[in-house]
Design brief:
There is one protein chain. The chain is of the alpha+beta class. Strand 3 and strand 4 form a beta hairpin. The protein is elongated. It has three helices and four strands. The longest helix has 12 residues. The chain has a two-stranded antiparallel sheet. A two-stranded antiparallel sheet has the order 3-4.
C-alpha cells in the first residue's frame, strides 16, 4: 500500500479538517466515527482510526440487557 501524506491544521474549537486526498483514498464520508489515540511515550504521535459501521453494535449482546449489565458493574464498585 502506498503511504499518502498531507498536512492539516488544528483550528479553533479543536476542529481538524482532513485533506481531500486522505478522505478520497480512505473513502471517508460525513458522519464517520473515529478513535483518536495518543502515544504516551511520544506526544507527537497521534493516531486516528475509523470505527467501521459494520462493527457498530457487534458486542451489543455481550452487554444486553443494558440495565442488568450496569447494575452488575455498579455492584462491583462497592
Amino acid at each position: 500500500m502506498t503511504r499518502i501524506q498531507a498536512s492539516a491544521r488544528l483550528r479553533s474549537r479543536n476542529q481538524l479538517t482532513l485533506p481531500n486526498d486522505i478522505v478520497n483514498a480512505a473513502a471517508l464520508a460525513e458522519g464517520d466515527a473515529f478513535v483518536v489515540e495518543l502515544e504516551s511515550e511520544d506526544a507527537d504521535v497521534v493516531t486516528l482510526r475509523r470505527v467501521r459501521q459494520s462493527y457498530a453494535g457487534a458486542l451489543k449482546a455481550m452487554y444486553a440487557p443494558v440495565d442488568e449489565y450496569l447494575d452488575g458493574e455498579r455492584e462491583a464498585w462497592a
